[in-house]
Write a structure and sequence with these properties.
With 328 residues, the protein is an all-alpha fold. 78% of the residues lie in helices and 0% in strands.
Length: 328
């Protein structure tokens, strides 16, 4: 008799809990429907409806919640992201890769790159092929070079030409940043014909000991930067051309380009260091009288390291100048 009573109580309790769960689910669905209805005409009210929900929802309501968040994001992106974080376990992201991709775009647009990367990765793994391009773009911006290199097979298998060429550019730069110009160069050859691609190709060629080909790449980049009025591109191209020419022993041309850099970017943080390099290549060409004033001015630099180097070079230049005067 006791056992039957316990069993009856258990059945009643189970039924009651099921009924409560069903009522809660219906209540959740009702709030979500209200929130979705408000999202288009009164987003603030929609936000408040969602705020009243618990952090964990019935999985059957996930599609409705995802649709509501997307609608709310149009007017209240920050609130939508906050709610996304709150309800993420209940959103069943693996069931809707497209939604995951859109939320990744939302997080990226609002400066939350780490979360955006995570969501792009999840979207890509769930079948959104196009998520690979923004994922790699963010990895590149964050300097996650090893992670980009680990995606080499995926990049090679990407089937949209324009996106793939951008991906090859990022992969090539990743190899460069990891000190592997030989690994970088073939990837950069397949990259988009863009300013950064030409600059990076030039760097790879310079490191591989091909100064003529490197100069051609830097010249193409400089021309592209000038036509596009891209100040940073012009700056980088001139400096890289000068460094490449110096490495190749073409000191007069290197001095000319270092001088051009200082003329165009006198307040650049690298300006004093570039003047030191210009002085050194001027010494290499025997133009001691032009090098000495450079070192004399740099000896008074607030940068102690530059001042010490400049004073040492000034002493060397003075000796060289004295020797020249004795000869002539």
């Amino acid at each position: 008799m006791v056992n039957k009573s316990i069993f009856a109580a258990f059945v009643v309790l189970t039924f009651w809990l099921g009924a409560v769960s069903a009522q809660e689910a219906q209540g959740e669905e009702g709030r979500l429907l209200k929130a979705l209805e408000y999202a288009g005409k009164d987003p603030r009210e929609a936000f408040l409806e969602l705020e009243r929900l618990k952090g964990t929802l019935d999985v059957s309501n996930s599609p409705l919640l995802r649709q509501t968040l997307l609608a709310l994001a149009k007017s209240y992106p920050l609130e939508a992201m906050d709610l996304f974080i709150k309800f993420e376990p209940a959103l069943a992201l693996e069931d809707d890769a497209a939604f995951t991709g859109k939320m990744a775009e939302l997080f990226e647009a609002n400066g939350l790159e780490l979360k955006a990367m995570e969501l792009y990765e999840r979207g890509y793994r769930a079948g959104v092929n196009d998520a690979l391009v923004p994922l790699v773009r963010l990895l590149e911006a964050s300097g996650k070079w090893d992670r980009i290199i680990s995606l080499k097979q995926e990049i090679q298998a990407y089937d949209k030409e324009e996106g793939q060429r951008e991906l090859f550019g990022a992969l090539g730069r990743a190899y460069l940043e990891r000190g592997d110009p030989r690994g970088a160069f073939p990837e950069l050859l397949k990259a988009s014909p863009a300013l950064d691609s030409y600059l990076n190709r030039g760097i790879a060629l310079m490191e591989l000991g091909h100064p003529d080909a490197a100069d051609d790449s830097f010249s193409l980049a400089l021309d592209m930067a000038v036509r596009g009025n891209n100040t940073e591109g012009i700056r980088r191209a001139i400096l890289l051309k000068a460094q490449n020419l110096e490495r190749a022993g073409r000191y007069k041309q290197a001095a000319s380009h270092y001088g051009l850099f200082v003329e165009k970017f006198p307040k650049d943080p690298l300006s004093e260091r570039v003047r030191v390099r210009r002085g050194i290549v001027l010494l290499e060409t025997g133009q001691v009288e032009q090098a000495s004033p450079l070192f004399s001015a740099l000896a008074k630099s607030k940068d102690k390291q530059i001042a010490v180097v400049a004073r040492a070079l000034l002493g060397f230049a003075d000796i060289a100048l004295k020797n020249l005067q004795e000869v002539y």
